[in-house]
């Protein structure tokens, strides 16, 4: 079922290895016959982009409007931008465009936007700030068509902590608001989002790619824990390392292992931290791995650990896709009552939850499940069933296309769509 109007994604960077859900959405819409373009303000992984273009040939179109990241670089580019008359309101109408004007982002983007007259499209902006930016671009006459905005994690947490009124103009001018969790929907409504146009839209996983494989502890085999994610504060991997050290020292699981897959600003710190706790090679830092290797590593482990927490700057998760992938394979999970995670993980059914930052309880939960391998299969089956029923990417891509079809047809008040 193709959409009547073409769809344009508006994103900060593409392809971004930490935002594969955007690529999955775009490909899902292409699979359904939609005409899809992606407009990004910075280039991402060239190898991934080359593979996408090879796969989809002329159906996969990406356009870049380079937007300097720092204010200093934008100041250098500003004199040239002033020569484009389309960009004038982006600077002189601060009351209308707020931070997008004062930061010079809108000025630079407007001056570098394609010169041809815009054709009507349905715009899908990922993250709240880019939804607001899309509305500004439309006000300047640079784009045409309705705008849907997907809200994830940091745009609903650390960004709002610094800019509490950031979305007031977006709620007035945007057409559809798609938070990825019930928690974020309730927060958007409290901020003033219109209820009839604010609908939960999950970031799911392609469950057909994950075979349910109940976990079994073979005789003499160590209990194997695994975590996957960026090495940043909100993932809570420092708590995972602390909990693992306690599991070995205080709970007697001296032969347990922990594998952490991913990279990021905290990786060196985490490796040094593990060494300081005398964990040596018992915590394996595998770095970034291809998706196929991640799935293989998951298939060889027993339990998934992701103790997400609110970072010092307020940054929070949405609902981690890594948790969905682990559960889809039948892994019991150890996580925290953080953000939308309890909407995915049911405590004592598909895993065990604790308060965020509570590494002692996390360690105790690891010990509880490590001592009860007879529970793993049932927990894994329950988690897999939950993901397949409520977080299947194909279902949500079908729903997304239906909603964008309605939006493109001029229907602003969008009723829930049946799956």
Automatic annotation (TrEMBL):
Keywords: Glycosyltransferase, Transferase. InterPro entries: Glyco_trans_1 (IPR001296), Glyco_trans_4-like_N (IPR028098), Glycosyltransferase_grp1 (IPR050194). Residues 19-201 form the Glycosyltransferase subfamily 4-like N-terminal domain. The keyword Protease does not apply. Residues 217-383 form the Glycosyl transferase family domain. Its EC number is 2.4.1.345. The lineage of its organism: Bacteria, Pseudomonadati, Pseudomonadota, Alphaproteobacteria, Caulobacterales. The keyword Nucleotide-binding does not apply. One of its GO terms (molecular function) is phosphatidylinositol alpha-mannosyltransferase activity. This is GDP-mannose-dependent alpha-(1-6)-phosphatidylinositol monomannoside mannosyltransferase. PANTHER family: SULFOQUINOVOSYL TRANSFERASE SQD2. The gene is pimB_3. It is an enzyme of class 2 (transferase).
């Amino acid at each position: 079922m193709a959409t009547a109007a073409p769809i344009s994604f508006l994103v900060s960077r593409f392809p971004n290895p930490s935002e594969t859900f955007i690529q999955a959405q775009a490909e899902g819409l292409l699979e359904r016959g939609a005409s899809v373009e992606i407009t990004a303000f910075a280039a991402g992984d060239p190898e991934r982009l080359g593979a996408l273009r090879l796969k989809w040939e002329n159906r996969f179109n990406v356009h870049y409007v380079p937007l300097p990241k720092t204010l200093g670089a934008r100041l250098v580019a500003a004199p040239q931008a002033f020569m484009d008359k389309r960009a004038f309101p982006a600077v002189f109408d601060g009351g209308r465009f707020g931070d997008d004007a004062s930061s010079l982002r809108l000025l630079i983007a407007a001056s570098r936007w394609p010169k041809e007259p815009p054709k009507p499209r349905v715009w899908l902006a990922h993250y709240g700030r880019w939804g607001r930016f899309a509305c500004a671009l439309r006000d300047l006459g640079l784009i045409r068509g309705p705008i849907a905005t997907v809200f994830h994690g940091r745009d609903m947490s650390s960004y709002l902590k610094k800019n509490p009124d950031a979305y007031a103009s977006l709620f007035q001018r945007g057409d559809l608001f798609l938070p990825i969790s019930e928690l974020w929907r309730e927060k958007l409504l409290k901020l003033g989002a219109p209820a009839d146009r604010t609908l939960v839209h999950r970031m799911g996983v392609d469950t057909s790619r994950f075979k349910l494989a109940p976990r079994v502890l073979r005789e003499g085999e160590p209990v194997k824990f695994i975590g996957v994610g960026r090495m940043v504060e909100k993932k809570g991997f420092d708590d995972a390392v602390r909990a693992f050290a306690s599991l070995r020292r205080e709970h007697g699981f001296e032969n347990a292992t922990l594998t952490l897959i991913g990279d990021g600003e905290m990786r060196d710190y985490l490796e040094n931290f593990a060494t300081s706790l005398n964990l040596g090679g018992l915590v394996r830092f595998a770095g970034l791995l291809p998706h196929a290797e991640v799935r293989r590593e998951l298939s060889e482990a027993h339990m998934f650990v992701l103790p997400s927490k609110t970072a010092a700057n307020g940054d929070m998760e949405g609902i981690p896709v890594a948790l969905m992938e682990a559960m889809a394979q039948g892994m019991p999970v150890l996580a925290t009552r953080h953000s939308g995670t309890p909407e995915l993980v049911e405590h004592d059914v598909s895993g065990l939850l604790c308060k965020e930052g509570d590494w002692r309880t996390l360690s105790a939960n690891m010990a509880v499940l490590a001592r009860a391998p007879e529970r793993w299969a049932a927990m894994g089956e329950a988690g897999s069933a939950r993901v397949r029923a409520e977080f299947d990417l194909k279902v949500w891509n079908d729903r997304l296309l239906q909603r964008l079809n309605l939006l493109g047809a001029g229907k602003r008040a969008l009723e829930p769509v049946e799956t």
